């Protein structure tokens, strides 16, 4: 799975979709990226919480983050005791209405694409959160996204995709005392024929870029601005 996603819904829409309180500080994200403070829903919470994706910015030292901090494989949950424990104790839902992948067009060139679900559906993606104590005793919170095998629509770009919780199982995912195996059964593959993919601006490459223009369809161009005829 690519390390960018979107949650562009208005606060009122997000609140209604997940039946949670959304604070006035919420802002739609068109280029959600690692180390950013992003909205998630945790067990026992009546509202949106804001956790850092992967790692807090001060700890990254401008170095690329390990995928292990950003993502967790749903297939590994039952094989690793630490992950299974996290699944039963620190689950969360990451609201998402799209995410980005890159299609290789040459040895160095790649074209950014946005993937959306159904009719611009907001999905609930499975995740795990962690709590860390800083040097001065302050508490920090991070989350990782759980992934599963990509369906045939996504596979040409990536072998992994978000692990999407069945909509009628989202409340149970957060509140259940179920085993890891039972929790995993709440995740179902998203139908390939309901996924829509279109090329977007290469400006998505820079995590500092933000705004609605990033999700608009854009003629296929690689990260260097060269247009492609082979998208």
From TrEMBL:
Say which domain of life the source belongs to.
Answer: Bacteria
SUPFAM superfamilies per record: BB1717-like
GO terms, molecular function = lyase activity; peptidase activity; single-stranded DNA binding
The enzyme's main class, written as a single word, is hydrolase
GO biological processes: protein-DNA covalent cross-linking repair; proteolysis
* Chain segments annotated as transmembrane: none
Name of this chain's protein: Abasic site processing protein
Species name: Fulvivirga lutea
């Amino acid at each position: 799975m690519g390390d960018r996603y979107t949650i562009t819904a208005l606060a009122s829409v997000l609140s209604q979709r997940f039946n949670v309180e959304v604070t006035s500080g919420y802002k739609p994200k068109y280029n959600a990226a690692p180390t950013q403070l992003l909205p998630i829903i945790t067990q026992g919470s009546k509202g949106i919480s804001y956790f850092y994706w992967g790692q807090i910015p001060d700890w990254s030292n401008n170095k690329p983050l390990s995928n292990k901090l950003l993502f967790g494989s749903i297939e590994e949950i039952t094989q690793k005791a630490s992950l299974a424990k996290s699944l039963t104790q620190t689950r969360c839902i990451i609201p998402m209405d799209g995410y980005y992948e890159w299609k290789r067009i040459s040895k160095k060139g790649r074209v950014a694409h946005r993937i959306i679900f159904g009719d611009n559906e907001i999905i609930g993606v499975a995740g795990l959160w962690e709590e860390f104590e800083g040097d001065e005793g302050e508490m920090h919170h991070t989350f990782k996204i759980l992934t599963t095998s990509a369906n045939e629509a996504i596979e040409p770009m990536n072998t992994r995709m978000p692990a999407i919780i069945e909509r009628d199982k989202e409340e149970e995912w957060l509140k259940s005392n179920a085993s890891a195996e039972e929790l995993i059964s709440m995740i179902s593959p998203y139908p390939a024929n309901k996924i829509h993919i279109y090329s977007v601006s290469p400006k998505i490459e820079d995590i500092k870029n933000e705004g609605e223009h990033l999700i608009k369809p854009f003629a296929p161009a690689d990260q260097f601005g060269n247009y492609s005829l082979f998208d």
